[in-house]
Amino acid sequence: MSKTLALLHTxxxxxxPKAALETLTAAVALGQPFDVAILxxxxxxxxxxxxxCGAATFYTVDDPAVAxxxxxxxxAAAVALIQAAGxxxxxxxGTSRFSRCLPGAAHRVDAQIDTHIVALKAEGDTLRAQRWFxxxxxxxxxxRAARPWLLLLDSGVFAPWQGAAGKADAQAVAVTFxxxxxxxxxxxxxxxxxxxxxIRPDAKLLFVAGAGWTKKQKDGQFHIGDASTLILDFxxxxxxxxGSSKSLVDIQGEGQETLSFMSHMNQVGQTGSxxxxxxxxxxxxxxxxxxxxxxxxxxxxxxxxxDPNCGWAQGKADVLYVADAFEVMAKVNALL
Amino acid sequence: MNGFQxxxxxxxxxxxLQTLEPVTxxxxxxxxxxxxxxxxxxxxxAHALYEAANLAKQVxxxxxxxxSLGPKAKLQQLMMTVAQKVPFELVALDGSASGFTDAHGxxxxxxxxxxxxxxxxxxxxxxxxxxxxxxxxASVTMQLVCERLxxxxxxxxxxEFKVAEDxxxxxxxxxxxxxxxxxxxxxxxxVLAWATGNLPEPPNNPQVGMANMRGVMPSLMKAKPTPSGVxxxxxxxxxxxxxxxxxxxxxxxxxxxxxxxxVEWINN
Lengths: 336, 268
Description:
The complex is a heterodimer of chains A (336) and B (268). Chain A is an alpha/beta fold and 336 residues long. Chain A has helices at residues 18-29, 43-49, 71-85, 96-108, 224-238, 246-253, 289-292, 325-335, and strands at residues 4-9, 34-39, 58-61, 89-93, 112-123, 126-133, 138-144, 149-153, 171-172, 184-190, 205-209, 241-244, 277-283, 298-305, 319-322. Chain A has a 9-stranded mixed sheet, with helices on both faces. In chain A, strand 6 (126-133) and strand 7 (138-144) form a beta hairpin. Chain B has one domain: HUPs (Rossmann fold).
């Protein structure tokens, strides 16, 4: 088996993100000896926090240059860690930080890289990986003979690692950053321009709002204010994450009045995100197979829709309620 | 400030409304009737192209190039619509646009084509592309292009790019939890992989189309054959997993009954 490294990063507060702990579980599950490398603020303390994972050696980079996620410095640090460990197989979480920098690191260490990995299986010297192609429409199983090989794992696939902390005695790896590496400065984190934070990746429920909310209703009038109140009330009571169909966010882009808290960030589906949540409730959503991939990774699915034959729900949802979503959601909110 | 040379990397993908069925070909996995499937410009690349054109309008002496790797005949069809959207100069590469090709080979071809653009000035260079394609969906090609061009500033999932008088710029990148990472950069060169940005699709403009097509046809004529295969990937299977669920349809229940059932389900 190839020399394996779990490459992780810390968050701004020095802790490891959930996706990093999931990667650790994947590394342990391969059943082979492995090392751990961590970059970011508080990397050494983070190594102590996962000392019980069974890694042979811990490597860290916690230079101030990697305190913030920046392509050039993160790439240089990742290269240094991969080279220090002599890694041939690198498992890493598919966070925004690593998705940004690790392809560049792969190029610099002459490695192959694959992303959005949803399954791994080791058989002898062969490692098989699975990922989706064509935006979650075709599932491929593949391997590579070339090493080094970097694999970025999708979040939500493996359970987060849990175990004892201890003294990891991590080896600090020195990195020489070029002047050009710091031409970019991270100035902060911003919320999207919207009235409320509605995207909650760890929520148990995804609420998907479709364009029907902004169409004329039975009385021939638009009820966008009512729709906003109902949806925000529901999100507040359930702490659900809000997803949107493409048509709904496109309406906003075209300048029509729509839900003010909705942005392209909420879009799920073929050209949006495909979040992972245990349950999903779709309302006023219409569309065929390509659009329905937005809830491919939702385990239990229910829909409220006026069309019993809608492609969004037929064969895709467990339960389809043929009803007016305005009426149903008002009652749901009252019960909640 | 001098104008920018904005190079957009973008190719064609099957129209999202088409049914896709994987098949095995001598070159590796492919799609059934792939050559017959209607194509569109990759959605995120399209956003990058519209943002590039908008930037070129704002900054005098800027120019937009579209570097596109795909089967020549299909690129020609695609250009009939794309060329009517915004002004650009096409750099065409004749090769596979399959989602099963290896990003490393594709990135090498794109970087070589960019480097070969006559009069390329790296101090004015901005390379745009999509944050992922709707075919391979790997989100790695633009970083590999960035490295091959020797550029150190890369931004992923970009929704906003604002340039200052001195050529420095600020960027908003999508990160977890619906938030943005805000950065500033001293200036070009840089590579930006766009998410959706903030611009709607421009309407067709026949005059822009006519102007573009004068350069598109010669570019297609001299499109370099570009082998882009599966590289070192050994595919074992490509399949559409069964997704059919037995949907229970509740037709004649009152809103009260439905609400009660939904709340119980949420709380379980």
